[in-house]
Design a protein that fits this description.
- The protein is of the alpha+beta class.
- The chain has one domain: Lipocalin.
- A hairpin with a 6-residue loop joins strand 5 and strand 6.
- The longest helix is centred in the N-terminal third of the chain and has 16 residues.
Length: about 130
């Protein structure tokens, strides 16, 4: 009987480890950093975490969007200057860095922190006709 209880306890451990980061944990980890993200073995984007929960995002194309983040229902939600609806994610601290799951749709994009290449590149606004 003790062995069965021990086994059930071990099976519950991954569920405990899978708790998403709180806003305070996320802020402490990201504030002042620039993090690169990947998905399925490919680079996906980069985000700069500025003071007061402000952010700057790029899909690595030199086009950057400013925004901010907030916590809602245990999720970290981002609103960017393009005016689209909030983008809400659950973030997890892993041995290799952050991982994130997009929670706005059932397709649930999974991102993970990858090695960066220095500073984030943001080109100026496009000019001309």
């Amino acid at each position: 009987m003790k062995a069965l209880i021990f086994l059930i306890g071990l099976l519950a451990l991954p569920a405990i480890a899978e708790s998403p980061m709180t806003a305070a944990e996320f802020d402490a980890y990201t504030r002042g950093k620039t993090l690169y993200y990947g998905t399925q073995g490919e680079r996906y984007g980069v985000e700069e975490y500025l003071p007061d929960r402000r952010v700057r995002w790029s899909f690595l194309d030199g086009k950057c969007k400013d925004g901010f983040w907030y916590e809602e229902a245990d999720l970290i939600c981002f609103v960017y200057e393009d005016g689209f609806e909030p983008q809400c994610w659950s973030f997890y601290k892993r041995p290799g860095g952050l991982s994130a799951r997009f929670e706005n749709s059932s397709d649930a994009t999974e991102l993970y922190e990858v090695e960066g290449e220095g500073e984030m590149l943001c080109l100026g606004p496009e000019v001309g006709v």
